[in-house]
Protein backbone atom coordinates (compact mmCIF):
# COMPACT_ATOMS: atom_id res chain seq x y z
CA UNK A 1 0.00 0.00 0.00
CA UNK A 2 1.24 3.55 -0.72
CA UNK A 3 2.38 5.76 2.13
CA UNK A 4 1.45 9.35 2.83
CA UNK A 5 4.55 11.50 3.16
CA UNK A 6 4.05 15.23 3.47
CA UNK A 7 0.55 14.92 2.02
CA UNK A 8 1.93 12.99 -0.98
CA UNK A 9 0.96 9.47 -1.97
CA UNK A 10 4.22 7.59 -2.34
CA UNK A 11 4.56 4.13 -3.91
CA UNK A 12 7.47 1.80 -3.41
CA UNK A 13 9.40 0.65 -6.48
CA UNK A 14 8.10 -2.88 -5.99
CA UNK A 15 4.52 -1.65 -5.88
CA UNK A 16 5.02 0.20 -9.17
CA UNK A 17 6.52 -2.91 -10.74
CA UNK A 18 3.71 -5.12 -9.48
CA UNK A 19 1.17 -2.68 -10.87
CA UNK A 20 2.88 -2.77 -14.26
CA UNK A 21 3.00 -6.57 -14.08
CA UNK A 22 -0.77 -6.78 -13.39
CA UNK A 23 -1.55 -4.35 -16.20
CA UNK A 24 0.55 -6.29 -18.70
CA UNK A 25 -0.93 -9.60 -17.56
CA UNK A 26 -4.47 -8.24 -18.09
CA UNK A 27 -3.68 -6.63 -21.44
CA UNK A 28 -1.66 -9.56 -22.84
CA UNK A 29 -3.48 -12.51 -21.38
CA UNK A 30 -3.01 -14.82 -24.37
CA UNK A 31 -0.12 -15.90 -26.60
CA UNK A 32 0.43 -14.45 -30.08
CA UNK A 33 2.75 -14.92 -33.09
CA UNK A 34 5.68 -12.59 -33.59
CA UNK A 35 8.19 -12.24 -36.44
CA UNK A 36 11.71 -11.04 -35.62
CA UNK A 37 15.38 -11.70 -36.14
CA UNK A 38 17.10 -13.65 -33.40
CA UNK A 39 20.27 -11.61 -33.18
CA UNK A 40 21.76 -13.77 -30.42
CA UNK A 41 20.47 -17.05 -29.02
CA UNK A 42 22.34 -16.66 -25.70
CA UNK A 43 22.22 -20.33 -24.73
CA UNK A 44 23.49 -21.16 -21.23
CA UNK A 45 24.72 -24.74 -21.08
CA UNK A 46 24.71 -24.98 -17.28
CA UNK A 47 20.96 -24.37 -17.10
CA UNK A 48 19.87 -25.28 -20.61
CA UNK A 49 17.86 -22.04 -20.83
CA UNK A 50 18.18 -19.42 -23.58
CA UNK A 51 17.76 -15.67 -23.36
CA UNK A 52 17.51 -14.57 -27.01
CA UNK A 53 18.13 -11.04 -28.18
CA UNK A 54 15.28 -10.23 -30.57
CA UNK A 55 15.55 -7.39 -33.05
CA UNK A 56 13.71 -5.82 -35.98
CA UNK A 57 15.74 -3.86 -38.52
CA UNK A 58 14.92 -1.69 -41.50
CA UNK A 59 17.74 -1.09 -44.00
CA UNK A 60 20.27 -1.97 -41.35
CA UNK A 61 18.80 0.35 -38.72
CA UNK A 62 17.48 -1.18 -35.49
CA UNK A 63 13.79 -0.31 -35.15
CA UNK A 64 12.94 -2.48 -32.12
CA UNK A 65 14.88 -4.55 -29.61
CA UNK A 66 13.58 -6.92 -26.95
CA UNK A 67 14.82 -9.79 -24.83
CA UNK A 68 13.31 -13.23 -25.05
CA UNK A 69 12.99 -16.13 -22.65
CA UNK A 70 13.21 -19.76 -23.78
CA UNK A 71 13.07 -22.41 -21.08
CA UNK A 72 15.13 -25.56 -21.38
CA UNK A 73 12.25 -27.94 -22.16
CA UNK A 74 10.89 -25.64 -24.87
CA UNK A 75 14.38 -25.12 -26.32
CA UNK A 76 15.07 -28.85 -26.57
CA UNK A 77 11.72 -29.50 -28.26
CA UNK A 78 12.13 -26.61 -30.72
CA UNK A 79 15.77 -27.45 -31.45
CA UNK A 80 14.79 -31.02 -32.33
CA UNK A 81 12.24 -29.68 -34.83
CA UNK A 82 14.82 -27.36 -36.39
CA UNK A 83 17.31 -30.17 -36.85
CA UNK A 84 14.63 -32.28 -38.51
CA UNK A 85 13.19 -29.61 -40.83
CA UNK A 86 16.17 -27.33 -41.53
CA UNK A 87 18.98 -29.80 -40.89
CA UNK A 88 20.26 -26.96 -38.71
CA UNK A 89 20.12 -26.29 -34.98
CA UNK A 90 18.37 -23.24 -33.62
CA UNK A 91 21.04 -20.55 -33.78
CA UNK A 92 21.82 -16.85 -33.79
CA UNK A 93 21.34 -14.67 -36.84
CA UNK A 94 18.17 -16.17 -38.33
CA UNK A 95 14.70 -14.76 -38.82
CA UNK A 96 12.05 -16.61 -36.82
CA UNK A 97 8.28 -16.76 -36.46
CA UNK A 98 7.49 -17.60 -32.87
CA UNK A 99 4.58 -18.01 -30.48
CA UNK A 100 5.07 -15.93 -27.34
CA UNK A 101 3.45 -14.23 -24.41
CA UNK A 102 4.57 -11.08 -22.61
CA UNK A 103 6.49 -11.73 -19.42
CA UNK A 104 7.29 -9.05 -16.87
CA UNK A 105 9.70 -9.43 -13.96
CA UNK A 106 10.28 -6.66 -11.40
CA UNK A 107 14.05 -7.20 -11.68
CA UNK A 108 14.61 -8.16 -15.34
CA UNK A 109 11.84 -6.13 -16.94
CA UNK A 110 9.75 -6.99 -20.00
CA UNK A 111 10.58 -10.00 -22.14
CA UNK A 112 8.84 -12.33 -24.57
CA UNK A 113 8.37 -15.86 -23.31
CA UNK A 114 8.91 -17.99 -26.42
CA UNK A 115 6.74 -21.10 -26.41
CA UNK A 116 7.16 -22.33 -29.97
CA UNK A 117 9.00 -21.47 -33.21
CA UNK A 118 7.90 -22.41 -36.72
CA UNK A 119 10.93 -23.98 -38.45
CA UNK A 120 9.21 -23.88 -41.87
CA UNK A 121 9.25 -20.08 -41.78
CA UNK A 122 12.99 -20.02 -41.01
CA UNK A 123 13.60 -22.57 -43.77
CA UNK A 124 11.96 -20.19 -46.23
CA UNK A 125 14.15 -17.35 -45.00
CA UNK A 126 17.31 -19.44 -45.43
CA UNK A 127 16.28 -20.36 -48.98
CA UNK A 128 15.63 -16.67 -49.61
CA UNK A 129 19.17 -15.87 -48.45
CA UNK A 130 20.54 -18.53 -50.80
CA UNK A 131 18.69 -17.13 -53.81
CA UNK A 132 19.72 -13.56 -52.93
CA UNK A 133 23.37 -14.65 -52.84
CA UNK A 134 23.05 -16.33 -56.25
CA UNK A 135 21.38 -13.29 -57.82
CA UNK A 136 24.04 -10.95 -56.42
CA UNK A 137 26.93 -13.14 -57.63
CA UNK A 138 25.42 -13.21 -61.13
CA UNK A 139 24.83 -9.45 -61.08
CA UNK A 140 28.46 -8.82 -60.16
CA UNK A 141 29.67 -11.14 -62.92
CA UNK A 142 31.62 -13.45 -60.62
CA UNK A 143 29.32 -16.47 -60.38
CA UNK A 144 31.28 -18.64 -62.86
CA UNK A 145 34.70 -17.08 -62.40
CA UNK A 146 36.33 -19.90 -60.44
CA UNK A 147 34.76 -22.56 -62.66
CA UNK A 148 36.42 -21.09 -65.76
CA UNK A 149 39.96 -20.96 -64.38
CA UNK A 150 42.60 -23.19 -66.02
CA UNK A 151 43.67 -26.10 -63.85
CA UNK A 152 47.11 -27.70 -63.72
CA UNK A 153 47.36 -30.83 -65.85
CA UNK A 154 48.58 -32.69 -62.76
CA UNK A 155 47.33 -30.77 -59.69
CA UNK A 156 49.67 -32.28 -57.11
CA UNK A 157 50.00 -29.34 -54.67
CA UNK A 158 46.85 -28.95 -52.58
CA UNK A 159 46.00 -26.40 -49.88
CA UNK A 160 43.37 -28.06 -47.69
CA UNK A 161 40.93 -26.09 -45.54
CA UNK A 162 39.53 -28.50 -42.98
CA UNK A 163 39.79 -29.71 -39.39
CA UNK A 164 42.58 -32.12 -38.53
CA UNK A 165 40.21 -34.37 -36.57
CA UNK A 166 37.52 -34.36 -39.28
CA UNK A 167 36.57 -37.75 -40.67
CA UNK A 168 36.17 -36.16 -44.08
CA UNK A 169 39.75 -34.86 -43.97
CA UNK A 170 40.99 -38.33 -43.00
CA UNK A 171 38.98 -39.98 -45.79
CA UNK A 172 40.30 -37.52 -48.38
CA UNK A 173 43.94 -38.09 -47.41
CA UNK A 174 43.44 -41.84 -47.42
CA UNK A 175 42.23 -41.74 -51.02
CA UNK A 176 45.01 -39.55 -52.41
CA UNK A 177 47.95 -40.73 -50.27
CA UNK A 178 47.25 -44.45 -50.34
CA UNK A 179 46.24 -44.72 -53.99
CA UNK A 180 47.41 -47.97 -55.63
CA UNK A 181 48.77 -46.17 -58.70
CA UNK A 182 51.67 -44.46 -56.94
CA UNK A 183 50.53 -40.91 -57.73
CA UNK A 184 52.25 -38.42 -55.42
CA UNK A 185 50.61 -35.39 -53.82
CA UNK A 186 51.85 -32.55 -51.64
CA UNK A 187 49.24 -31.10 -49.28
CA UNK A 188 49.12 -28.63 -46.40
CA UNK A 189 46.33 -28.17 -43.88
CA UNK A 190 44.92 -24.72 -43.17
CA UNK A 191 42.65 -25.42 -40.15
CA UNK A 192 39.28 -23.67 -39.97
CA UNK A 193 35.85 -24.00 -38.44
CA UNK A 194 33.57 -25.72 -40.93
CA UNK A 195 30.12 -25.45 -39.36
CA UNK A 196 27.89 -22.67 -38.08
CA UNK A 197 28.12 -18.90 -38.43
CA UNK A 198 31.73 -18.74 -37.21
CA UNK A 199 32.82 -20.91 -40.13
CA UNK A 200 32.29 -17.97 -42.53
CA UNK A 201 35.09 -15.67 -41.24
CA UNK A 202 37.22 -18.70 -40.36
CA UNK A 203 37.25 -20.10 -43.93
CA UNK A 204 37.66 -16.65 -45.50
CA UNK A 205 40.63 -15.97 -43.21
CA UNK A 206 42.35 -19.15 -44.39
CA UNK A 207 41.64 -18.34 -48.03
CA UNK A 208 43.35 -14.98 -47.49
CA UNK A 209 46.30 -16.76 -45.91
CA UNK A 210 46.63 -19.15 -48.84
CA UNK A 211 46.69 -16.17 -51.22
CA UNK A 212 49.95 -15.08 -49.62
CA UNK A 213 51.65 -18.38 -50.58
CA UNK A 214 49.65 -19.00 -53.74
CA UNK A 215 52.67 -19.96 -55.87
CA UNK A 216 53.09 -23.13 -53.76
CA UNK A 217 49.69 -24.59 -54.69
CA UNK A 218 47.71 -25.79 -57.71
CA UNK A 219 44.30 -25.74 -56.04
CA UNK A 220 42.40 -25.37 -52.75
CA UNK A 221 40.21 -28.12 -51.30
CA UNK A 222 37.55 -27.30 -48.70
CA UNK A 223 36.89 -30.58 -46.90
CA UNK A 224 34.12 -31.22 -44.39
CA UNK A 225 32.69 -34.58 -43.42
CA UNK A 226 31.08 -36.55 -40.67
CA UNK A 227 28.57 -33.83 -39.77
CA UNK A 228 25.76 -34.88 -42.05
CA UNK A 229 23.53 -32.09 -43.30
CA UNK A 230 23.68 -30.07 -40.07
CA UNK A 231 25.20 -26.58 -40.08
CA UNK A 232 25.35 -25.98 -43.84
CA UNK A 233 23.48 -22.68 -44.16
CA UNK A 234 26.71 -20.72 -43.65
CA UNK A 235 27.83 -21.98 -47.08
CA UNK A 236 25.00 -19.94 -48.63
CA UNK A 237 26.49 -16.74 -47.22
CA UNK A 238 27.36 -14.22 -49.94
CA UNK A 239 30.75 -13.22 -48.49
CA UNK A 240 31.98 -16.80 -48.34
CA UNK A 241 30.63 -17.69 -51.78
CA UNK A 242 32.18 -14.55 -53.28
CA UNK A 243 35.56 -15.35 -51.70
CA UNK A 244 35.47 -18.78 -53.36
CA UNK A 245 34.16 -17.52 -56.71
CA UNK A 246 36.91 -14.89 -57.01
CA UNK A 247 39.78 -17.00 -55.70
CA UNK A 248 42.69 -16.93 -58.19
CA UNK A 249 43.21 -20.72 -58.38
CA UNK A 250 40.58 -23.50 -58.57
CA UNK A 251 38.69 -24.25 -55.35
CA UNK A 252 37.21 -27.73 -55.02
CA UNK A 253 34.72 -28.70 -52.31
CA UNK A 254 33.80 -31.89 -50.53
CA UNK A 255 31.36 -30.66 -47.92
CA UNK A 256 29.87 -34.08 -47.22
CA UNK A 257 26.08 -33.97 -47.61
CA UNK A 258 23.40 -35.24 -49.95
CA UNK A 259 20.82 -32.44 -50.03
CA UNK A 260 20.64 -29.39 -52.31
CA UNK A 261 23.97 -27.78 -53.16
CA UNK A 262 24.94 -24.68 -51.23
CA UNK A 263 26.01 -21.51 -53.05
CA UNK A 264 29.66 -22.03 -52.08
CA UNK A 265 29.60 -25.46 -53.70
CA UNK A 266 27.82 -24.22 -56.82
CA UNK A 267 30.43 -21.50 -57.52
CA UNK A 268 33.43 -23.72 -56.80
CA UNK A 269 35.51 -25.22 -59.62
CA UNK A 270 34.40 -28.73 -58.65
CA UNK A 271 32.00 -30.02 -56.04
CA UNK A 272 31.67 -33.59 -54.82
CA UNK A 273 29.09 -35.00 -52.42
CA UNK A 274 31.78 -36.51 -50.19
CA UNK A 275 35.51 -35.97 -49.58
CA UNK A 276 36.13 -39.53 -50.81
CA UNK A 277 34.46 -38.75 -54.13
CA UNK A 278 36.55 -35.57 -54.40
CA UNK A 279 39.73 -37.58 -53.88
CA UNK A 280 38.63 -40.03 -56.60
CA UNK A 281 38.08 -37.09 -58.96
CA UNK A 282 41.67 -35.97 -58.42
CA UNK A 283 42.95 -39.47 -59.12
CA UNK A 284 40.90 -39.50 -62.32
CA UNK A 285 42.72 -36.36 -63.51
CA UNK A 286 45.99 -38.27 -63.10
CA UNK A 287 44.46 -41.25 -64.90
CA UNK A 288 43.45 -39.00 -67.77
CA UNK A 289 47.10 -38.04 -68.14
CA UNK A 290 48.84 -41.28 -67.25
CA UNK A 291 46.71 -43.72 -69.27
CA UNK A 292 47.49 -42.10 -72.64
CA UNK A 293 51.15 -41.87 -71.60
CA UNK A 294 51.16 -45.54 -70.66
CA UNK A 295 49.43 -46.44 -73.92
CA UNK A 296 51.97 -44.36 -75.82
CA UNK A 297 54.76 -46.15 -73.96
CA UNK A 298 53.31 -49.52 -74.95
CA UNK A 299 52.96 -48.34 -78.55
CA UNK A 300 56.56 -47.08 -78.62
CA UNK A 301 57.85 -50.36 -77.17
CA UNK A 302 55.79 -52.43 -79.60
CA UNK A 303 56.73 -50.35 -82.63
CA UNK A 304 60.39 -50.30 -81.55
CA UNK A 305 60.41 -54.06 -81.19
CA UNK A 306 58.87 -54.44 -84.64
CA UNK A 307 61.42 -52.05 -86.12
CA UNK A 308 64.27 -53.90 -84.42
CA UNK A 309 62.90 -57.23 -85.63
CA UNK A 310 62.62 -55.96 -89.21
CA UNK A 311 66.08 -54.41 -89.12
CA UNK A 312 67.60 -57.53 -87.60
CA UNK A 313 65.98 -59.58 -90.35
CA UNK A 314 67.23 -57.16 -93.02
CA UNK A 315 70.68 -57.18 -91.47
CA UNK A 316 70.67 -60.98 -91.45
CA UNK A 317 69.68 -61.03 -95.11
CA UNK A 318 72.40 -58.51 -95.96
CA UNK A 319 74.98 -60.56 -94.10
CA UNK A 320 73.98 -63.66 -96.02
CA UNK A 321 74.15 -61.75 -99.28
CA UNK A 322 77.50 -60.26 -98.33
CA UNK A 323 78.87 -63.72 -97.53
CA UNK A 324 77.56 -65.08 -100.83
CA UNK A 325 79.00 -62.22 -102.87
CA UNK A 326 82.36 -62.30 -101.13
CA UNK A 327 82.46 -66.07 -101.48
CA UNK A 328 81.77 -65.91 -105.21
CA UNK A 329 84.26 -63.10 -105.61
CA UNK A 330 87.12 -64.71 -103.74
CA UNK A 331 86.63 -68.27 -105.05
CA UNK A 332 88.46 -67.66 -108.42
CA UNK A 333 91.28 -65.96 -106.56
CA UNK A 334 91.67 -68.91 -104.27
CA UNK A 335 91.75 -71.27 -107.27
CA UNK A 336 94.46 -69.17 -108.97
CA UNK A 337 96.50 -69.24 -105.80
CA UNK A 338 96.24 -73.00 -105.61
CA UNK A 339 97.67 -73.52 -109.13
UniProtKB/TrEMBL annotation:
One of its GO terms (cellular component) is exodeoxyribonuclease VII complex. The keyword Hydrolase applies. InterPro entries: Exonuc_VII_L, Exonuc_VII_lsu_C, OB-fold_nuc-bd_dom. The lineage of its organism: Bacteria, Pseudomonadati, Bacteroidota, Sphingobacteriia, Sphingobacteriales. Signal peptide: none annotated. It comes from the Bacteria. One of its GO terms (molecular function) is exodeoxyribonuclease VII activity. It is an enzyme of class 3 (hydrolase). Residues 142-327 form the Exonuclease VII large subunit C-terminal domain. Pfam families: Exonuc_VII_L, tRNA_anti_2. This is Exodeoxyribonuclease VII large subunit. Its EC number is 3.1.11.6. Residues 12-118 form the OB-fold nucleic acid binding domain. Keywords: Cytoplasm, Exonuclease, Hydrolase, Nuclease. GO terms for biological process: DNA catabolic process.
Amino acid sequence: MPENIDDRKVFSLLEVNNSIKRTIAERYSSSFWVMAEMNKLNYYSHSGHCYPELVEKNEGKTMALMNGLLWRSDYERINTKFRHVLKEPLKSGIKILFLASVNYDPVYGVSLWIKDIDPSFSLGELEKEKQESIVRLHAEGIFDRNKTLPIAQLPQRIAIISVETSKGYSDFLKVIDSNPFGYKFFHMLFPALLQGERSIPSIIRQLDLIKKVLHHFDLVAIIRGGGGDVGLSSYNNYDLAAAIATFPIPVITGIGHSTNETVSEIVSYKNAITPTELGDWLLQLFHNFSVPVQNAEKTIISESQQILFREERNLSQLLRLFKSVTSNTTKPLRLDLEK
